Amino acid sequence: MSAEATNPEAHPEARSELRRRGRSRLDLRRLGRAALLGPTSRDRLPDAIGHVAEAHRAHHPDADMSILRRAYLLAESSHRGQMRKSGEPYITHPLAVTLILAELGAETTTLTASLLHDTVEDTDVTLDQVRAEFGDEVCFIVDGVTKVEKIDYGAAAEPETFRKMLVATGNDVRVMSIKLADRLHNMRTLGVMRPEKQARIAKVTRDVLIPLAERLGVQALKTELEDLVFAILHPEEYESTRALIAAHAGERDPLPGIADSVRTVLREAGIAAEVQVRPRHFVSVHRISRTRGELRGSDFGRILILVGENADCYAVLGELHTCFTPVVSEFKDFVATPKFNLYQSLHTAVATPEGYVAEVIVRTRQMHRVAEAGVVALGNPYATATPDPAADPDEERVDPTRPGWLSRLLDWQQSAPDADTFWTVLRAELAQDREITVFRADGGTLGLPAGASCIDAAYAQHGEAAHGCIGARVNGRLASLSSPLSDGDTVQLLLAQDASSGPSAEWLDHARTPAARIAISSWLESHPDRAMALTTAARAPLSVVGARGGGANAVADLPDATVRLAGCCTPVPPDAVAGFLVRGGAVTVHRVQCAAVAQMRAVGRTSVAVHWRATADCRVTLLAESFGRPHLLADLTEAIAREGVEVVSATVEPPVEGRVRHTYTLQLPDAAGLPALMRAMRDVPGVYDVSRA
């Protein structure tokens, strides 16, 4: 709630760090005096929003400031007489929130809604008044923020709280942008709250709002929130980190010298670039101190290089790796493969002759805007959309800036059976800090969390139709549904023809995404009998043996020798074959490509020349892989019979993850008919692969 605000003097070290990073702060006392003076003339902006106007013009020089003036006058008059716990007029809070967003580059509609974000909740102003004065867009955002502000933040209410927050965010990402800026200002002024209330607010911020800021790509808000939460929840570690940074400030910092060397290298290469030294924030220093132990001077910051075009990023990388010693393990390319939160940059590290290792980030200026401000930097996502006067204002709107993870969360939160399940999977999803991209067989892509399996890909692509998924091809090779996927894999999901197919309980052991886990659990709960049947122990294979065995049609150059065709490779005319003498005086015949040929030669088996008889009949073993469905064995046997082929024996293995494997030993009247036979078997509904044994 916006009322959680006091003590602007809390955590001076963190504020000093923020000022060092170039972020201006509001003078709340000055703004309070300006607010108490009341409205100004129509010809100029009120003094109290001068900071906001200046920051807004820096990103949007042609912006119409008159709407901000009107929004401020309405907010100031409606909040007049309300005071914050720290003694400032309440209007200083929406002003501070709006300045935070203006510095991030938010467009005018967002800033207008930000100035008004507490009016409907805390004053007599109504949504109809906001709509009449500022239009539907501003009203929509203010309404969304108001609904989020009304959420109960008590521990028992957390699950339903964040379901509502998620829905509000999905309807318009600008709602969550304002909420994050609101929480940042409240965290900055949290000092006079009771310690237990500070801890409760900090925990909520840590568990959900910081991960949401990360997911929305708003790094500028995320890093400051992390530092403020760190100071409240881990005061001893915060103090030791602060002392570590203070000690470093008195030492020689090698990064400015390294930055000068980088500037010289790029200037000589003719690459126009801006080179900066970016100090690490408190939490970042704490993390690397835990992983690296004693820190050196170059560990307290990173070098940021800003260029004009994407191609310049790689040109800079080439110069760095040519003129310095690269640390290959530190290279990451987020330009070609952006992160799930729209982040793009090249990351590398280089070693200097003095022995320092400097981390380097290379990005374009547009990438930098998005890296700092995330979705806030992308402007109004509905600016080019044609409004539909007949559309239901309560329906979810399609947001072209919505990250893929948010769309997925909105899909599965609707099917979550209860708030506790939603809360559990939400926290698990937000804890995922890395996403992979896999390619679909049709050329599309799927964004999945790291560690996702083919099961997750199936539900991401097909929704509830994935209940009938029985396998996959990953990079062209058959794979089980439990197979984990890696970044850049190509996955083709294989769906059963039988509409009654369903998942097994074992799928839950390999599902990583909320959508997959909730869909599987819901199906198992609604089909308890089927779920039990799918998890019973595997049955023994079903075997069908023909009435007679066929004789081999291969002849060995060894009088009276018995000739057997090897079952491991089932050679047929006109395969190139090799024969070997085995126990009992028999000759076994293999295809020359068979792995057993090398083994026979290695153990010293006698080689015997073999050739095919003039007769064209032959025996072959085929493997058919298919989806499980009723009457499949009968349909396959009928297809084989139509080709004039006799079934010598058949083995059907029990279903595994909905897939069935058939092994047929067949007697063909003519070896030339083998390709046609295999095509006929593949044409049977449900069969997806037929191969030689």
Structure explained in plain terms:
With 693 residues, the protein is an alpha+beta fold. Strands 1, 2, 3, 4, 5 and 6 form a six-stranded mixed beta sheet that branches. It has a five-stranded mixed beta sheet with strand order 8-7-11-9-10, with helices on one face. Strand 15 and strand 16 form a beta hairpin. Helix 10 packs across helix 20. The radius of gyration is 34 Å and the shape is elongated. 41% of the residues are buried. The N terminus is likely disordered.
Topology:
Elements: H1 12-20, H2 28-36, H3 50-59, H4 66-79, H5 92-104, H6 108-115, H7 119-122, H8 127-134, H9 136-149, H10 158-171, H11 173-188, H12 195-215, H13 219-233, H14 235-249, H15 255-268, E1 274-279, H16 282-292, E2 301-307, H17 310-323, E3 325-326, E4 332-333, E5 346-351, E6 357-364, H18 365-373, H19 404-415, H20 419-431, E7 435-440, E8 445-449, H21 454-462, E9 469-474, E10 477-479, E11 490-495, H22 514-526, H23 528-534, E12 542-545, E13 554-556, E14 563-565, E15 577-581, E16 587-591, H24 595-602, E17 607-608, E18 610-612, E19 618-627, H25 632-642, E20 646-652, E21 659-668, H26 674-682, E22 687-692
Parallel strand pairs: 2-6, 7-11, 14-16
Antiparallel strand pairs: 1-2, 3-5, 4-5, 5-6, 7-8, 9-10, 9-11, 12-20, 13-18, 15-16, 15-17, 19-21, 19-22, 20-21
Helix pairs in contact: 3-5, 4-6, 5-6, 5-11, 6-9, 8-9, 9-10, 9-11, 10-11, 10-19, 10-20, 11-12, 11-13, 12-13, 13-14, 14-16, 19-22
